[in-house]
Amino acid sequence: MNNEVKKGVSARSLNMAMIIIASLLSVYLLYSNYRTTKTYQMTEKITTQYIDCQNDAKNMQVASDYLTNKVREFAFTGNISCVNDFFEEIEVTRRRDNAIEDLNRYFSGTKANEGLQSALEASNRLVEQEYHSMRLSIEGRGYDIKQFPEVLQNVSLTPEEQSSTSEEKILLAQDLVFNESYLNQKEDIYNSINESVNELIASTRNEQMEITQEMRNALQRQNIIIVCLLIIALLLVVFTNKLILSPLHQAVANIRNQKKIPEKGSEEMRFLALTYNEMYDEREKQESELTYEATHDSLTGLNNRKVFESMKETIEEEQAALILVDVDKFKTINDTYGHAMGDKVLIEVAQHLRTAFRSVDYVCRIGGDEFAIIMMHANPGMKAIISEKMERLNESLNHPRRSNDIPPVSLSIGIAFTEKNLKFDQLYKNADSALYIVKEKGRCGYGFYE
């Protein structure tokens, strides 16, 4: 007895110890996840910085080349739109300025900042030279300086340039944006930016390598903790009473999924499962009966009007045919043979309709002697097939089997096909119009809505 008590206490102590260890490991795992998240965010930040620097360097070069092309084109062609494009880039788009500002934000406090500032100053001097070239082009071509931006109006020409002829001013303008000094300045700007960007990229790669190694170590520690937690979880499962908990867990899962409970485990669990399963079978039977009654016609067993109405939206989006069927002179049959015979006729018609159409089609009774068929995946190209079905229907009903003990009957049938953007109500009217024409022509036939 004492041994059993000791074993019991030992088991509880072991379970408590494993829970405490698991809790400590979980706390450390949460802390490790927090560290890993911070490291990932740093990696994302550095990667974004790397991509931004590459894009800024590219934008800087593209914008600078764009300005050069515009000022050169103006120097040679005198096209004023080139000046407008030039100043739109300088004052509105500002790709070059935005790129330099963005790069300066990353380079702040680094050695690369000096090179970037040098590039910015050289870029501004280059723009001044481009302004000078445009002013010479304006003077050489005799344009009114007042129609150009104020910055060009303020550009001063040297006395030698002012005394030059128009042709000489144009040549001077062209030389300013093609001479060796201009090209050297552009190259100096590119070199300064590239050196600064390369320095930042090298620094970024070093940081990425350090952070990657730190993340690698953190993931290894997390993997070890996860393995330890899994071992503890498995040990805890071993000490769980499988005879009770396992059947109970499975019973709860099956109840949630609306399934029967396996009859296993203790006697109480088997009794509980047997009782629940009997209730489950009875409920399934009742639900099945209620569902059938709600969607089927009690006399013919066909789909009822509720099902027909529920297909409105579906049929508007499908290629289908709506077929409306009336039993000809059904009132006469009731008056002559009685309502019992009328019911037999309706059942016989329903059986013929069910046999004539496919399982994917919806055969419905929507009124006293009114039937409707939604023929899925049907189009006007199937008129011949549908016509053959209709002819066979009337042929069979006009010559019933003697064993049926029912009088010959005929059907009037109207058929309409769905069209793009055609609503169900209009489709129904189309089929009803076709049915009306058949009745006007003497019944016992079919017609397509045209």
Folded structure, characterized:
With 450 residues, this protein is α+β, with helices and mostly antiparallel strands. The protein has three domains: 2-210, no CATH class; 253-295; 305-448, Reverse transcriptase/Diguanylate cyclase domain (Alpha-Beta Plaits). 71% of the residues lie in helices and 7% in strands. It is built from 16 helices and five strands. It has helices at residues 2-77, 80-93, 95-107, 112-140, 150-153, 159-162, 166-176, 180-238, 245-256, 267-295, 305-310, 312-316, 330-337, 339-356, 383-398, 424-440; strands spanning 320-327, 362-365, 370-376, 411-417, 445-448. It has a five-stranded mixed sheet with strand order 2-3-1-4-5. The termini are far apart.
How is this fold's topology laid out?
Blueprint: H1 2-77, H2 80-93, H3 95-107, H4 112-140, H5 150-153, H6 159-162, H7 166-176, H8 180-238, H9 245-256, H10 267-295, H11 305-310, H12 312-316, E1 320-327, H13 330-337, H14 339-356, E2 362-365, E3 370-376, H15 383-398, E4 411-417, H16 424-440, E5 445-448
Parallel strand pairs: 4-5
Antiparallel strand pairs: 1-3, 1-4, 2-3
